[in-house]
Amino acid sequence: MASDSDLIVNVDLLVESESHLSKIKTELNDIDNRKDDMRPYWGSGEISDAMGEFVDNWNDYRSKMIESVEGVGKLVTNTINGFTGADAALAKELKKARKAK
């Protein structure tokens, strides 16, 4: 029956993507917590200051990336919900139609 479909949605892939996006968001959020942990490895005061400045600039871009990841994550979640809901509704209607015969 699946070969008769005009649209095939790989919900497993969408669920996996949703999970990966969540992990990416967590990693991006946790980067700020690791900034101070890395400071001893940066070396001299000048290098440490430069790296600190880089990290602070990175925070602006990181925030934008987190927003984008969240946005895509919401789209994926809505897609999953939409297609699984539509699939369940279609299955219900098919069962009704079969009983009516």
Descriptive overview:
This protein is mainly α and 101 residues long. The protein has two helices and no strands. Helix content is 83%, strand content 0%. The model has no long low-confidence stretch (mean pLDDT 86). The protein has one domain. The longest helix is centred in the last third of the chain and has 56 residues, at 45-100.
How much β-strand is present in the residues?
Answer: under 5%
Oligomer: single chain
Biggest sheet architecture: none
- Backbone shape: rod-shaped
Amount of helix: over 70%
How does the helix and strand content classify structurally? mainly alpha
Gyration radius (Cα, Å) is: 23 Å
Distance between the termini: 19 Å
Write the topology of this structure.
Elements: H1 11-38, H2 45-100
Helix pairs in contact: 1-2
